[in-house]
Design goal:
Number of strands: 13
Radius of gyration: 22 Å
Structural class: alpha/beta
Number of helices: 11
Oligomer: single chain
Helix content: 25-40%
Strand content: 5-15%
Largest sheet: 7 strands, mixed
């Protein structure tokens, strides 16, 4: 089955002539996710409070297994769910209960929610940041590993794929292994990696946190993010909600300590809307059923990216191959192409007026490719860029 066949509702609903090349920002839902959304609403109407039984007894463990298989995790129970990744960042840092300033090693290419929160904590004195520049990308692994190896950090935070460039950190284990202190926690943001590039966390599953969500390449919209929490790290978050103690609700409490599970549910918060979980389960399920593994998805997208780059002028045009970030010195990239153009907002607006959806970050134009694209769509994108004078 072709990938486009899985997205008939989304493709049919698109205005005539629209080219959606912002899949890295908001991926279209497959039909199965739409149908799951409707089915969940019907289930909630019919079962009322009884819906929680199937959610925790069937949907929850099935979705854990689907995600764990994609990440090479040995134990699906290490996964917890939340509406957004920011919730998890707050709960992880809350595990450090003493009043001392936490030393955090990170990069200058973290997504806005993490960057903003870390900088605000630095303003308040909660953390002291050591920020390693992402560029030049070719030397990033060595520079970040060297900083990690210096030790003395409470938390090491970095992205698997950088949101502002598509750069893929090539060896997660090398960075994790560079951390000399067992008391240092490692947190990896995998949002631009999950279900886009092949990921195997098996070798670091006992040492590193990993978080991602459904909004982008998992193709299921907002509202369902997940955290892999390595056993033993953060057994009792200070910021906690009643779902983290769901199995202990009937306890009278008394003088004993607040009770936590030992699996990933220790990082849960409070009441959430499970419809996003249902969409994610359906999206990953239909990909499984039709053979669209992360490896196959990645190969499809890389081929489309290569076709687009081959159609660009080598240099000298407003949009040319030499403006690509990172350049050819870095062989691997995520599912969007990033260009350091002269006026990224202006490029974005001109393309939007021509019916091409893109986005821009940090003065860079980003073009996202998806499994519902084919060679004809890429060729159509090149034609519109040429008609706008972007190719010279």
């Amino acid at each position: 089955m072709s990938a486009a066949e899985l997205f008939q509702r989304a493709l049919a609903a698109a205005p005539e002539g629209r080219l959606h090349f912002a899949a890295h920002s908001h991926h279209a839902w497959p039909d199965a996710a739409v149908e799951a959304h409707i089915a969940y609403a019907e289930q909630a109407i019919a079962q009322l409070d009884g819906k929680w039984g199937p959610i925790f007894g069937e949907l929850w463990p099935r979705l854990q297994s689907r995600i764990a298989s994609r990440l090479g995790l040995p134990d699906p129970s290490t996964l917890a769910f939340s509406p957004n990744t920011h919730d998890f960042l707050i709960r992880i840092v809350s595990c450090f209960e003493d009043a001392r300033t936490l030393r955090v090693l990170t990069t200058d290419a973290e997504f806005h929610s993490a960057r903003r929160q870390l900088e605000r904590w630095q303003e308040s004195g909660r953390v002291e940041l050591e920020v390693i520049p992402a560029e030049p990308h070719a030397s990033f692994p060595e520079r970040f590993q060297a900083a990690a190896a210096n030790g003395g950090h409470d938390l090491v935070v970095f992205s698997h794929v950088f949101f502002d460039s598509g750069y893929v950190v090539p060896d997660l284990q090398a960075i994790v292994d560079a951390v000399p202190d067992d008391d240092t926690w490692v947190l990896i943001d995998g949002y631009h990696a999950f279900n886009a590039i092949p990921v195997d966390l098996g070798s670091i599953a006992m040492r590193a946190f990993y978080l991602a969500g459904a909004y982008k390449y998992a193709m299921a919209g907002e509202g369902c993010c997940f955290l892999h929490a390595p056993p033993g790290f953060g057994p009792r978050p200070s910021v906690t909600g009643w779902f983290a103690g769901y199995a202990d609700l009937e306890s009278s409490g008394g003088d004993r300590l607040v009770w936590f599970e030992t699996d990933g549910t220790r990082f849960l918060g409070s009441t959430f809307d499970p419809v996003a979980m249902a969409r994610l389960d359906a999206s990953l399920g239909v990909l499984d059923a039709t053979g669209w593994t992360p490896q196959r998805i990645h190969a499809h997208v890389v081929a489309l990216q290569s076709r687009f780059l081959a159609g660009l002028p080598t240099q000298g045009a407003p949009l040319s191959a030499d403006l690509l970030i990172p350049g050819p010195e870095v062989p691997e990239r995520g599912h969007f192409l990033t260009f350091q153009v002269g006026d990224a907002p202006g490029f974005h607006d001109r393309l939007a007026e021509a019916g091409v959806m893109t986005d821009h970050r940090k003065g860079r134009l980003r073009l996202g490719f998806a499994i519902y694209h084919d060679e004809a769509a890429v060729d159509a994108l090149l034609v519109r860029c040429r008609d706008l004078g972007l190719l010279g």
